[in-house]
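Retro notes (design track)

What went well: tokenization of the new backbones is finally stable.
What didn't: we kept losing track of which sequence belonged to which structure.
Fix going forward: every design gets posted as structure first, then sequence, in one message. First example under the new rule, 163 residues:
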């Protein structure tokens, strides 16, 4: 007879994820403010700048900000790191982590090391896919922000996608 006592429950897995999160520099919380709010793209950009300062600036990184019902940043996760021109993110990974971190909504962000602030066709397609997935599980994607060394754009504010 097989012993199934070593199968991890969702609670055990969540605990391991949180322990990993606390133990890794690139996912540690660099924010001074205990409960920063991301009520608009400018707020989110200020928070994201502090996160991106910890990451290599010669490659793209996708970050998810987890928001609670009051638009406070309840957590974040570096979803993917890629090359100088792309970072492939998986919507399953995004929403698995959003659920585990108790998100009521999320903000996605990625950087463009090239300095180009324009959303690519791939950026738009990915964002539309994430928006659709969020609607299904009732965790809306409220924005996707593209960051460069000097500025940012909000795909919501620019009406690149229908959020």
């Amino acid at each position: 007879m097989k012993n199934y006592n070593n199968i991890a429950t969702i609670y055990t897995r969540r605990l391991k994820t949180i322990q990993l999160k606390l133990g890794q520099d690139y996912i540690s919380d660099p924010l001074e403010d205990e409960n920063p709010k991301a009520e608009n793209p400018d707020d989110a950009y200020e928070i994201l700048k502090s996160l991106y300062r910890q990451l290599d600036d010669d490659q793209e990184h996708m970050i998810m900000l987890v928001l609670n019902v009051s638009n406070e940043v309840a957590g974040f996760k570096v979803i993917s790191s890629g090359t100088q021109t792309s970072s492939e993110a998986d919507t399953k990974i995004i929403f698995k982590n959003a659920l585990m971190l108790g998100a009521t909504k999320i903000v996605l962000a990625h950087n463009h090391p090239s300095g180009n602030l324009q959303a690519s066709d791939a950026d738009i397609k990915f964002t539309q896919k994430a928006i659709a997935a969020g609607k299904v599980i009732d965790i809306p994607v409220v924005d996707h922000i593209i960051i460069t060394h000097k500025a940012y754009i909000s795909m919501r504010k620019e009406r690149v996608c229908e959020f």
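Added context from the reviewer: The two ends are 51 Å apart (CA to CA).
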